[in-house]
## 1
Amino acid sequence: MRHLLRRCGFYLVALWASITLNFLIPRLMPGDPTAALMERFQGQNITENTLHAMREQFGISSEPLGVQYVQYLNNLLHGDLGFSITAYATVSSVIAEHLKWTLGLVGVAAVLSFVLGTLLGVIVAWRRGSLLDSILPPALTFFSAIPYFWMALALLYVLGFTLNLFPVSGGYDVLNQVPGWSWDFTFSVIQHAILPALTIVISSIAGWTIGMRNAMLTTLSEDYVLMAQAKGLSENRVMLSYAARNAILPSITGFAMSLGFIVGGSLLTEIVFSYPGIGLTLFKAVVGLDYALTQGIFLVIVVAVLCANFLSELMYTLLDPRVRQARG
Amino acid sequence: MSKSEMDGEYPQDTAVQDKYELLSPVPLPHEQPFDDGIPAVLPVDVTYKAIPVRKRGLLPRLGLWWQATMTTLAANPKMLTGVCILGFFVLVAIFGPLLLRHDPAAFSNDLFQPPSSTHWLGTTQKGEDIFSQVVVGTRASLLVGFVSAVGATALSVFFGMITGYFAGLVDDILSLVMNIFLVIPSLPLAIVLASFIPFKGPGPIIIVLLITSWAWGARVLRSQTLTMRSRDFVQAARAVGETPAHIIFAEILPNEIALVSASFVSTFIYTILADITLEFLGLGDVSVTSWGNILYWAQNDQALLTGGWWLFIPPGLCIALLGAGLAFLNYGIDDLANPRLRKERKPRPVKAAKKEATA
């Protein structure tokens, strides 16, 4: 229990730190966002009033940093993340609209990649020295070295553009479908999600396979595995319930750690496929110098990753009795 | 006893120690007719056999480590592959731009041509030669990645070892900062940072990459230093009255060189990929010729949806090849440091039993 409380404390501090970081980044940078915006509206007459209004909108004031900070925290508590100048809506409404796409895509793809990759790792370690073992790890290493966005471009070109198997952009067929709980719409959503999901799975699977293989090799040399085989247990039972079950623990910690990478990669995947999630919105915000939206999205991503990390730590505590007993 | 004898790396028994000293990688003629029951070549790995006992200090040890690496390279195909690939790209980065036929930035009348004998990798919509761009871009991409990786590794060595060596408040605070940086997703942070820095170019990108990449290595080095802290040789150094700085960087650090190099290689992979990613998003200086910017312009000009595969494939393949080379290098280092992964070819009881079961 003490262990859990400590971890809760850590995540609260991490949350506070990322909120503060988010507050400080634009304010510590040289120059101010309105200057960049002035450049954008070059040639148009910008009066002192307009400038003042823009500063208000960005939440930039000449007040001392401390007062601004309290104001910022207060706004955050009320769910007020500012106003997006590119989408012309409040930041929270823009995020709410796009977050579900990303959550669905990344959630499914990350879990799929974890399950498939771990299983592959188990099999490869079990058949160590076989043809599969000598081909798969190097091939996967090569795939994992390919940047997400390039993998996305390659899949888009081959499967989407040349072979015309899948749609190349968007989250659903905007021209023919009305969002709702109809079969056609669901089918369209799945069809559009296949290529982005495939990109994420292919790019992130190698880490699980190789990590699991190495962990399996360590457990396979343990005496209890030999014992299980000596007892004449079936191959599957020894492989899955004896060796893999003990080897999977580091992978679960790894899942939490690598979630940040997967989220980062999925941002790029979304950009390439024009998938209507948070990543594409972040990209548009960055290009359009929409600072409020950029910050809001960053905050949401950080909070989501922190939550996922916390959940996976809870799971780890449940799975590994040593953690519970030693510190509980 | 000399300092390195207290390291605990070598057997404390002086009789065995003498044998270690006598052994060179190739037994000298006068060493061969040993007839005292101890074989001329002990069943010890080549790596350790080549290390004489009396060397001390960072530089000679680095030299020995290098020598040992060279010896092991021949026995370690993964590492050899990695070194060859990396070496190839370094050579291209240094000498490549001198051997080009086309100016990478020059426009020509050959617009959007697929690969041909004049333009080996085709041309862009503006008629620029892609082969020249890829070759010249190697330098910029490799340099930004390398500088950031060196900086980030230096930071992670510094923070990792300080937090690992000092217990108490310093460790608590710095570890907290480290762990926070570990849970904040690095790519979104890099994108946000890069978008808020008002000027563009390699400088800001390097700063962004430094901030987002030091924490991983620091964490690994911290846990290793934690296990080193209570070893005999550290306590001996402390007893002699060495300063903490000397103990950390001259006593403990040389023992973690393999770990530092592994962490450097992983950081290098991250910085190269992140640099290219940021440039692809247009957050770098788009007028510089680099792998990321080739992809940025290709995307900007809608090259893929007009069938221009030759704009994407070359830089992408280079990135993937370089990344894979670095990954192989790292697996090689892993094999060196972890003997369990090294003994791959030896038959083990598990396999034997499995064969019987299937037979």
Note: The two ends of chain B are 58 Å apart (CA to CA).
## 2
Amino acid sequence: MKLLVNGEERNVDAPPLRRLLDVLREDLGLTGVKEGCGEGECGACSVLIDGELVNSCLVAVCQAEGSQVLTVEGLNLTPLQRAFLDHGAAQCGICTPGMVMAAHRFLLSGAPATDENVREAIAGNLCRCTGYAKIVEAIQSAAAGAQR
Amino acid sequence: MERIELEHQGMVGRSPPRKDGADKVTGRARYLDDLTFERQLYGRTVRSHVAHGRIKSIVWDPDFDWSDVTRATAADIPGENVVHLIEDDQPLLAHEMVRHREEPIALLACADREKLEEALLHVRVEIEELEPVLDPLQSTHVFKSYRIEQEPAGLAEAFARHRVVEGTYRVGHQEQMYIEPQAVCALPRPDGGITVYGSMQCPFYVHRALQRLFRLEDDRVAVIQVVTGGGFGGKEDYPSMIAGHAALLARKSGRPVKMVYRREEDVAATTKRHPAVMHYRSAVADDGTLLALQADIVMDGGAYVTLSPVVASRGVLHAAGAYRWKHARIDCRVVRTHTPPNGAFRGFGVPQTMFAIESHMERIASELQIDPLELRRKNVLRVGDVLPTGQKLESSVSAREVLDAVAAKSDYARKRSASVGAGSKRRGIGIALAFHGAGFTGSGEVKLKPRAGVELTERGARVLSVSTDIGQGTITVFAQMAADALGVALDDVEVADPDTSLVPDSGPTVASRTVMVVGGTVTRAAQSMARILAAYVAEVFSVAEVECRGGIFSAGGKSLAPFAAVARRYLQERGPLSVIENYRHPPEIAWDDASYRGDAYPCYGWAATAVEVEVDLDTYEVSLLGVTTATDVGRAIHPVLAAGQVEGGTVQALGYALLEEHFWDRSGKLLNTRMQNYVIPTALDVPRMQTVLLENPYPHGPYGAKGLGELPMDGPAPAVVAAVLHATGALVSELPLSPDRVMRAVAP
């Protein structure tokens, strides 16, 4: 089947119910997509499908057929990622790619970057290192930069 | 976060982007499961299904095709069947007895993961069940006990003549819940040795464990830490177990074997924070002066000794809190139960006892009707005070300062005197104080003799240590410290990968010792290298008083040569230059293991936490409205990373306070092993935090720095207790403060 991953058309030969997470990591080598729980709780495997944030561990690859899939590898040190770096929003880094995707989706929404909105936007992405403070700061800083 | 103004030119005290940051934010960083090894197999573990019993047989289904499955049991271990740590009581694979429900008994490896899962269903272990002991108070098997006394002759009189306040405090297990599960890959080597790559905190623990399991000489083992997705203590000792398993399968199959735990397996089988029951009894003068303390602490060690003696020791040494007592007797025992071994988790025994003493301070304040902040101010430790082990505090004591800072920043006085409300929503604010000994307990560092250093590169230097970066920022802060000592830019310093075949043993990455102990040793090594190179430049240019600043060697204000040019010339003329130093323990810091008296830690970090809550008297839910911390770190090498440690540790502690709880059935089975039913805080569960860093330098620490990593874990839980007490008038003496516990305390 054909997938559009990070702007490129990719041919995938996989059983239709194989997890999108496994196809991305193992078949396409996109190991920036992480697995933390395998049940849609931690958000480490977050990617965008046609602009919507999903847990790729809960998506069968056939559900993404013909859709645009965006992973962290499709972002190339964007101002958002730069803000994560500058604000110390990544510690161990295992949640970071998923967190970046959730934040990217939030910035695309154009919603005002209030504390509450930002926290709501990343509530499906668990981080055990940072206590979220620097992640929220980074997203707010990137949102402010995007407005200027 | 408060800004700290800098007057100097160096990197220490600044917050450059972390060196591994770009790889992490772009997804390029490769964690263990992101690596693929040629011809790799996947490994799985056959575990016990009962908590206590005698193994009768392992039955391999004769109708199953085992031809492409590698199988291993205890009989395959060429060396000693022990996971080497403090005691050698834990087997790598159980062979006679099982002592907890997740005990590993056999191992399987296969190239095909689906077949591997099916194979697991075709192994049956027959076990004769025995009665498990699950309640630590019922256990008669004591791993270790401690007693600390301070002028005990006066205890009886103090309790007879003064007001006595008494309470019992309870905490349960807490799961580290690093987001990356345990993961290793073991590779067999042509020389009969083993190389292990893995997610871990302490590569030399794994190295030594493998040597004993496989009877291998030192140079036949290499253990390499790869980018690690969180540890928090959970990857201190357990990696020796999973690495031993993968290595056994790798040796038997002759192929690399990767083992990555699923979340449920990780939560069920690996170590957690020790549960504890802590009974406190104190004698107090009417004006609030603390006089005498008796504490009796029982910790649940789980099935094997692992790190329990040192966890209990650290808990005991902090059990009296950051206060002056005239008389004290503190007893603690850590006992065996038939549950998986409990182990290291950030705080290492202190979050338990600090919860008890700080909740007890709230009880005392409440009984004396004194403001709890005033009670603390009256009794806090100051320079010159003596701890129960006889340690006299000589410097870097900030108990009063962190209390005052957190009170001011959180607007405590105004909020404390405001109405708590009258309807179903009640508001309250509370403060807790914590301190945390930095570095190993007692003579730990002296016995370990940690070594670390730097080697010259064509551009600058490479730091050599086995201290791992598990997110806290080791790579970046070590480079900052070495860069300043050498007078070069941060980019000119690299940090070697922790590989036991290449770097000196600087000890495990635990105990808030990385910056203070290993970083200090790295700094001294870099200073030695700076002197060697300055002497070389002086000789080459025939000048005196050479120094290097900003990457340029100069003498008397005259620039001579860039560092890189000097480095290249030195390497060409004189060959490789590497300087390895031993950690130098301050000689006046002395501890006696036999009497358990003396200076338990070279110095202490101090922190105060203020928490504001709203308690819903219809649902008994506790919501956090505000969290403020003030923390004395000695010197913040990297203020953003330091604040990140404080904020992250605080939120783990708030999870401990409000959300995180394990449930066990009567057979010793852990019932909640998933992220769906063991709940850690999300971004919505915690409010915006105010983080204040204070710098009261430790004279023997590099640039004044002292340990920080664990300290933020100690105070927030009792601060929540204090705030809920203020809001409702009820003291909840057991964690977590779930609605059922709050209800029982508020409306008994």
Note: The mean pLDDT of chain A is 97.
